[in-house]
Design a protein that fits this description.
Blueprint (H helix, E strand, L loop, with lengths): L6 H47 L13 H71 L5 H35 L14
Helix pairs in contact: 1-2, 2-3
Length: 191
């Protein structure tokens, strides 16, 4: 106990503790207030950034706290607005390119329909004339001529099948370009 210390040393210890303890308490209180002043605005900014990252685009980024925190919040807000502008530009480009692709497909479909129908009539005439020749003169034609007529008939049928496939391809491509109900085309999908 006190007998180990002499009176002047004990007095100096008491005086030192009387000065150090209030300074320590004031320092801890100040550190706590500074931490709250920094942490609260940073927590609010972190919550806003998290909401924005989950797709909420109407988030206001809180601009508060120290000058550094305000500067950080303004930089985050500027970045979010720049990303939104870029996203809108991309969505516009996707819409424009989708429309251009659809127009090109309509033009191609019109061409394939026109070409198919324009070619179908001559192929049908060739097939019909070959059939008439076989019906009217089939037995009197040499074997080589009958073979040629059979080839003409097969090739006319093959050409008709190709024209049908060309029309089906045009229709299939048109159906593939139609977005599903409620679906937004392109990589700019949100929510």
């Amino acid at each position: 106990p006190a007998s180990y210390f002499d009176a002047p040393a004990l007095r100096l210890l008491k005086q030192s503790l009387a000065v150090i303890l209030p300074i320590l308490a004031f320092t801890l209180l100040g550190a706590s207030l500074i931490a709250r002043r920094l942490a609260a605005p940073l927590d609010a900014l972190q919550a806003a950034v998290g909401a924005w990252g989950r797709g909420a685009r109407d988030v206001d980024f809180p601009i508060g706290g120290t000058a550094e925190v305000r500067q950080l919040a303004m930089a985050v807000s500027d970045m979010a607005h720049a990303l939104e502008r870029g996203e809108h530009r991309l969505e516009e480009q996707v819409a424009q390119r989708t429309e251009a692709l659809q127009q090109a497909h309509r033009d191609l479909e019109l061409f394939t329909w026109s070409a198919s129908h324009d070619l179908r009539a001559p192929v049908r005439v060739i097939r019909n004339f070959a059939d008439i020749l076989v019906e009217d003169f089939g037995d009197s034609l040499p074997a080589e001529a009958q073979d040629y007529l059979a080839r003409i008939t097969r090739q006319a049928d093959a050409m008709s099948a190709l024209l049908d496939a060309l029309l089906a391809l045009g229709r299939a491509g048109r159906d593939a370009l139609r977005p599903e109900a409620g679906e937004r085309p392109g990589p700019g999908r949100r929510r």
